[in-house]
Amino acid sequence: xxxxxxxxxxxxxxxxxxxxxxxxxxxxxxxxxxxxxxxxxxxxxxxxxxxxxxxxxxxxxxxxxxxxxxxxxxxxxxxxxxxxxxxxxxxxxxxxxxxxxxxxxxxxxxxxxxxxxxxxxxxxxxxxxxxxxxxxxxxxxxxxxxxxxxxxxxxxxxxxxxxxxxxxxxxxxxxxxxxxxxxxxxxxxxxxxxxxxxxxxxxxxxxxxxxxxxxxxxxxxxxxxxxxxxxxxxxxxxxxxxxxxxxxxxxxxxxxxxxxxxxxxxxxxxxxxxxxxxxxxxxxxxxxxxxxxxxxxxxxxxxxxxxxxxxxxxxxxxxxxxxxxxxxxxxxxxxxxxxxxxxxxxxxxxxxxxxxxxxxxxxxxxxxxxxxxxxxxxxxxxxxxxxxxxxxxxxxxxxxxxxxxxxxxxxxxxxxxxxxxxxxxxxx
Length: 428
Prior knowledge:
By secondary structure, this protein is α+β, with helices and mostly antiparallel strands. It has helices spanning 4-9, 11-20, 27-55, 61-94, 131-137, 143-149, 159-176, 179-189, 209-214, 239-242, 301-319, 365-370, 395-403, 415-418, and strands at 113-118, 141-142, 156-157, 199-201, 206-207, 225-227, 232-234, 250-252, 258-267, 286-296, 323-327, 339-347, 352-361, 373-376, 379-382, 384-392, 411-412, 426-427. The protein contains 14 helices and 18 strands. It is elongated, with a radius of gyration of 26 Å. The two termini are 51 Å apart.
């Protein structure tokens, strides 16, 4: 969340963010709640001081009556304060992050801006198939049996596609833990940023509701899977439990940035996508993903996000998959995001680009809720946080399947993955 002092002193900037991010929030209502909250806090403290003063020394019957009345008044004030605090907290949680200066302003995805493209789109001498058609013909994807067992938007992955998924995981981890490769990526991207390799993490896939709320990722709840008996949620990405793992902790300045790469299964209801992408594995309830997360100094957070995007580009350049880099506009980005950059891969079977990666700069929005700070010479302050897709194990295989399909209906294996697949060159 934002600092209430910042909101008070930058009302027009906050109003603009609320408007441009299409957030349904009455800022005047929040400011009124804040003013009432501060008044009650002051009144409560004054009554407490008066009560302490009157409690000392001998008490006459009149003194005791007045003290009793004082306690009753203090109790009423504290009860009202609790109600106002609750309303204030709910309103504060709805205030969106302030978009970065270079974020395009737009109402929806139509306002997104293409920053660049890479790769040559292949001209096939046959009509390229969609990934789900290849999945059926090569017996790699079985949605029919999965629907009988688990329902719609679940699949069985089989044969070479399973080997490919684990190869992609191994490949991704090998890059993110290799200091020489990361140094090469930093140099190529022209970034002045500290080199530290990513620490591999296998995070929990369950998260407490209050922690999910502090991550600002619980809403919309209809997208989440909830286990009522334990009051736990299944995560929608590894960042949800990686980003919160340092809750209420303070880093040393010299230790930042701290970078993690987490592998987990992700669970999403896809509640708002009825009828969309029903075939194959593009939009499913359960998929695996490698996710990047970092904690850094505030002045370095944009460069940190650019580093994450450079890594995403490196992966697809090495896989030789054409893509475009897209700056997400205010109306299409999440409330907690200050800056969002997406990678969209070219999908020949669908004859269009589709989103495969997201990089989210959160500034101190999550850290303030989570209480994650850094100790510096001038005192402590909140860290800045970034999260980004390293490799999504539904959409990366799709991009490979469609771009590497052959006329005879097989799928070639990208060269960088072959050593992780026992030298297999083709799925047939």
